[in-house]
Amino acid sequence: MGFPSNFVWGAATSSYQIEGGWNADGKGPSVWDTLCRREGMIYQGHTGDVAADHYGRAAHDVGLMKQIGLKAYRFSISWPRVMPEGVGRVNEAGLAFYERLVDELLAAGITPYVTLFHWDYPQALHERGSWLNRESVGWFEEYTRVVVSRLSDRVRHWMTINEPQIFLGPSEGEGFHPPGNRLSHGERLLAAHHTLMAHGRSVQVIRAEAKARPSVGWALVGRIKVPASPSVWNFDPSGPTLEHGGGPRAEDIEAARRLTLSVKAKDFWTNTWFADPALLGRYPEDGVRLYGADMPRVRPGDMETIHQPLDFYGINVYDAEVVEAGPGGEGRVVGFPPGHPQNALRWFLVPQALYWGAKFLYERYRTPLYVTENGFSGLDWVDADGKVRDYARIDYTRRYLAELSRAWRDGVDVRGYFHWSLLDNFEWQQGYKERFGLIHVDFTTLKRTLKESAKWYAGVISANGADMSVG
Ligand code: FCB
To answer: Which of 215, 275, 363, 371 reaches 20 to 30 Å from 338, CA-CA?
Structure first.
């Protein structure tokens, strides 16, 4: 086990999922405020109206972060809190909230990592066509400029967008995520093209206008395939490396690599459709071939806008598929054995996703990596004696961290890890059904309780990952 000496240990959240204060102090509505009011869209009609009331309790929450010993905190800014109509008018009270949060964090010795867009799109801009409208590129640029001009003297770490694969994929395609439209594949590709351009412009604005030298990245879904191997499910902190034998077959590794780095279907469950244009300056050929006539019209200059070097690549990783090579070397997904561990959302646990995911993406893009999200959803509650005994979360996290450490030892430039999530929160369509937090939130009283995982994580951080034992 081991991590670089300056490794960034953090936790992550997003605005809509924790803030509440949905119409406080001049905030405009987001597409999520709208969606939550539509019947049948969210589990039991839950909304983010109050959520964990982080809007009212940010200072207290920073105190809890300090107690855990977090080195960094990843949070997102609610675009319509800062610009109620998405463009034009700036809501001073909204900006002041984030300014106070940043100041509290810095005073506590915690480095802020800001995500500009984590899905709570301004409703007013949605009505003007959202990402389908080419003007959306300029809208995001304008919003970036407002935030950067106000916070960049104190914030140095920026992420433009979170998981375009999700907000453009299931959201627009299947109609269960805002904006809830059912779009054709061609329309989704156009929206993705504009999103990528908006990302590129945002990077340019941050670089040109930040007052302190910025470090700029993004947070993408890591869609990872791992090679089948007898050790996939075993926990071995020293790490079963290939050199020590017992690792997967070379042809299975190759199959997993190829599938991780390919576009295979008319959906957005891909890494390369987004990362190739941004980091290599072109759409991946296999996708272009597959999408054919659905491809968006790429105008002169578009790819140059999209192609902006990044200081880091953030991956959000929870699970993975297991792959083996067929007789002709082609990869095929193999199922999980009965009873394979799952979280409360029924996502399968695959710790090696952090090893292979980090490795495959680093080999292709040569960009320093952060794990910007990784965590476990449970059905935790406060025990009669006041403790929250979430040992499954602890075990999940140490298995994944062990694999991340192995990636680092094998030469991947891994800079940090953000646990998802700091607090129990509003999990989109699932409402408050599952809990991802290191800190338990009673959604009636809004009382916070540090779970056992938070105490364990505090120990991991203070030992820089050298000790992950469970007390
Ligand atoms: C990711 C999202 C995050 C949270 C986790 C569980 O896809 O970025 O907001 O919902 O999943």
So the answer is: 371
Distance CA 24, CA 27 (A): 6
User: Average pLDDT, whole number, for the chain?
Assistant: 93
Q: Residue 245: left (phi > 0), alpha (psi -120 to 50), or beta?
A: left
Has 373 been annotated as catalytic? yes
Please tell me the predicted confidence (pLDDT) of residue 459: 97
- Read off the amino acid at residue 62: V
Which of 19, 104, 163, 434 is the catalytic position? 163
3-state secondary structure of 137: helix
| Predicted pLDDT at 329 | 85
Burial group, residue 444, by CB count within 10 angstroms (0-12, 13-18, 19+): exposed
Ligand 1 centroid to residue 14 C-alpha, Å: 9
Instruction: Write the DSSP string, 327-373.
Output: TTS-EEEE-PPTT--B-TT-PBP-TTHHHHHHHHHHHHH---EEEEE
Contacts of 23 (CB under 8 A, 6+ apart): 29, 33
Identify the active-site residue in 19, 373, 403, 452: 373
- Measured in angstroms, how far is the CA atom of residue 82 from the centroid of ligand 1? 22
Determine whether the shortest distance from the Cβ of 165 to ligand 1 is under 6 A.
Answer: no
Catalytic-residue membership of 163: yes
Closest CA to 70 of 372, 461, 464: 461
Q: CB of 104 closer than 6 A to ligand 1?
A: no
Side chain identity, residue 442: D
The residue among 359, 342, 357, 348 whose CA lies nearest residue 319 is 348
Q: How far apart are CA 124 and CA 28, in angstroms?
A: 8
Which pLDDT value is given to residue 171?
A: 53
Q: What backbone phi and psi angles, to 5 degrees, belong to 359?
A: -65, -50
Q: What is the pTM of this model?
A: 0.96
Distance of CA 11 to the CA centre of its chain: 11
183 CA distance to ligand 1 centroid (A)? Answer: 22
The predicted pLDDT at position 234 comes to 58
The finding on whether 424 has its CB within 6 A of some atom of ligand 1 is: no
pLDDT of residue 241: 43
Task: State how far the Cα of 59 lies from the Cα of 56, in Å rounded to an integer.
Answer: 8
How many Å from the N-terminal Cα to the C-terminal Cα in the chain? Answer: 18
Q: How far apart are CA 64 and CA 375, in angstroms?
A: 18
Where the chain has pLDDT below 70, the residues are 170-181, 230-246
Rounded Cα–Cα distance for residues 90 and 22 (Å)? 16
| CATH superfamily to which 8-462 belongs | Glycosidases (3.20.20.80)
Q: Say yes or no: CB of residue 158 within 6 Å of ligand 1.
A: no
- If we measure between CA atoms, which residue out of 36, 61, 40 comes closest to residue 119? 36
Rounded CA Rg of the chain? 21
